[in-house]
Amino acid sequence: MSRQLEIGGVPDCIRLDGWWLASSAEDTAKEAKTQQEPKTRAPSLRDPRALGVVAFLVLLADWLFWRKAPGISVALFAMVLSVAILAMRQKRTTRREWFGALVFQLVCNLPVIESLQPLSILFSATGLIGAIVWAYFGRIVEGWQMIWFMMRVSTIGAALLPKRVVEDVQSAQIKVGFKQLLNALALPLVIGGVFLMLLTTANPVLERFFEQLTHFEFVSDLDVLRMAFWVVCACLIWPYLHLNHAWIGGMPIRKKAIAVQAPWVSALVNGDSVRNSLFLFNGLFLVQTIMDVGVLSGGVALPDGMTYAGYAHRGAYPLMATAILAGVFAITTRSMVQGDSVLRKLMYLWLGQNLFLVVTAAFRLSLYIEVYSLTYLRLAALIWMGLVFFGGSLILFQISHAKSIGWLVRSNLIVLSATLYLCCFVNFAWVIADFNLNSGDAPLQPDAHYQLDAHYICDLGEFALPAIRAFEAETKTTLCAGYDVQMPWHTPIMNWRDWGFRKWRLQVYLAE
Fold first, then answer.
1. Is the pTM of this model over 0.70?
2. Which of 6, 128, 184, 436 has the most CB atoms within 10 Å of its CB?
C-alpha cells in the first residue's frame, strides 16, 4: 500500500487554486468546452415575471378581440407584443434598439391604422417578425434564415407551453412523491368529504351550488369558447417571449454549392448561341415594335372583325410575359454578356425594346379600360406593369455597372415593398368608382361606346360611397337603387377597437 506525501503548511489559496495540477486532460477539455458553450436557460413557468407578461397579453387580447370587430386594436396589440418580446429577451436592450424598434413598429402598423385589410395585416406581421428576429439574433439575418426561424417558432413553439406545463407537473410529482402525497391527503379528504356531505344535506343553497357544479350549469358554451381562446392565445404568445437556444436549436448555415454544369447546358448556352439568340430576339421584337407603333398611331389597319378593345385586351398580358422572360434570360447570360462589348450592346438594345413593349402593353390596357371600365384586376395589372418596367431598368443598370445578382434581388424587393406599402394608403374603391363614373365624352354622361357597369360599382363597398353619392347628387339619379342587396352599405364605427382612419374619414363625410 503506497503512502501519500503530505506537506503541511500550504496556504489555502494555493491549495484551492492548484486544482488543475491534479486534473486529467479529459477533465480540462470538458471544462474548456463548458466555458465556451453559451449557457442557455430554458423557459420556466415558475418565473413570475414571465407568467405576469403572458397573463397580461392574454387579457389584452381578450379585451381587444373577443367578440369585437378588429381595427386599430390589431396595431395596438402588435406594438405591445413587440415591446414585450424585446423586454423579455435574455440580452439587455439598449436605448438605441428601443427607439429603432418603436419607430419600425410604428411604420409597419401605420397601414393598419389607415385601414384594416389583408395587405396592412401583412405589414403588421412583418413588423412583429422583425421584432422576434432582432430579439433572438440581435442583427438582420438572411431571408431564408428568417423563414426557417419563423417556421420553427410557429410549429414547435406553438406546443412549447403545454410541454412546459406537463414537465413542471411531472417534476413536482417526482419531488413530492406519490406515496407521501397520498398519506398527506387521505385523512383530510375522507373526513372533509363526510362533513361536506352533512353540511350539504342541511343547507339547500349549498346543495343547489353543487348540483350546478356537477352539471356544469355555471359554465355556458360561450364561456368554454372564451377559455379556449385564452389557451390558444397563451400557446401562441409564449414562444415569442422565450426565444431560447434550448428549444429553437442552432441556425442552419448555407453551404456554398459547387456549380456543376451539365454537358448539354454548356453545349446549348455558350457565347455563339447567346449571340445568335440576341440577333434573333432583336429582329423579332423590332417587328413587334414597328407593328405596335403603326396600329396604335392609326397607320396600320386591324384585321377584319378585330376591334381596338380586343386588340388591347389580347396583347397586354402576353407582352408582360415576354418582358419577364427577357429579364430571366438577361440574368442567366449575364456572365457571358459582361465580357463582350458586342453582346452587351445587343442586350441593351433588346432590353430597351422590352421596356418599350411594356409601355405599349400599358397603353393597350388603358385603351381597354376606356371602353370596358376600370376594375381591381386591371388596376393591379397596371401597377404590375410599372414594377416590371422598373425591374427591367434595374437589369440594364446592373449590367452596365457590373452589379451582383444579390444587389438586383434586394433592389427589386425594396421597390416591391415600397409599392405595396404605399398601396395600403390608397382608397382603390373610390379610385375605381370615380374613374368609371367620370369616363366618357362628358364628365357625368358616358358616351355610347363606354359600358358602365353599375352593378360592379355598387359592389365595391363602403369606401366607394363618396364617389357614388357625388355622382347621384350631380345627375339627380339613384345609381344603386336596383342593387341594394349586393351593396354593402356603410357600417359606422361602433367601438374604438374597430376604428380606422379611412373609416373615420368616411363617417365624417357622410355625417356632413
1. yes
2. 436
- Three-state secondary structure of 83-115: HHHHHCCCCCCCHHHHHHHHHHHHHHHHHHHHC
Residues pairing with 442 in the sheet = 445
Closest CA to 222 of 230, 233, 214: 230
Q: From CA 119, how far away is CA 423, in angstroms rounded? A: 9
- What are the DSSP E strand ranges found in 64-178? none
Distance CA 57, CA 238 (A): 10
Distance CA 170, CA 148 (A): 32
* Nearest residue to 283 via CA among 350, 354, 355: 350
Q: What integer pLDDT is reported at residue 425 of this predicted model?
A: 94
Cell, residue 61? 387580447
> What is the tens place of the pLDDT at every residue in 295-322?
766 666 666 666 666 666 666 677 777 8
| Residue at grid coordinates 409564449 | 238
Residue pair 82/467 in contact by the 8 Å Cβ criterion: no
**DSSP β-bridge partners for residue 465:** none
The residues with which 445 forms a beta bridge, in sequence order, are 442
C-alpha–C-alpha distance, residues 74 and 109, integer Å = 9
Number of H helices and E strands in the chain, helices first, is 23, 0
pLDDT at 114: 92
Q: Which pairs from 347-350 meet CB under 8 Å and 24+ separation? A: 347/278, 347/399, 348/396, 348/399, 348/400, 349/282, 350/278, 350/281, 350/282, 350/285, 350/326
Task: Name the nearest CA neighbour of 111 among 366, 443, 425, 476.
Answer: 425
H helices within 220-307, ranges in order?
A: 221-241, 245-248, 263-268, 271-297
Burial of 132 (0-12, 13-18, 19+ CB in 10 A): buried
- Residue 361's Cα: distance from chain center in Å? 31
For residue 274, which of 193, 194, 342, 203 has the smallest C-alpha distance? 342
Residues 6+ apart with CB under 8 A from 160: 43, 235, 238, 239, 242, 247
Extract the runs of DSSP E, i.e. beta strands, from 186-232.
Answer: none
Distance CA 439, CA 472 (A): 15
Residues 127, 209: contact at Cβ < 8 Å?
A: no
The whole-angstrom separation of Cα 83 and Cα 356 is: 48
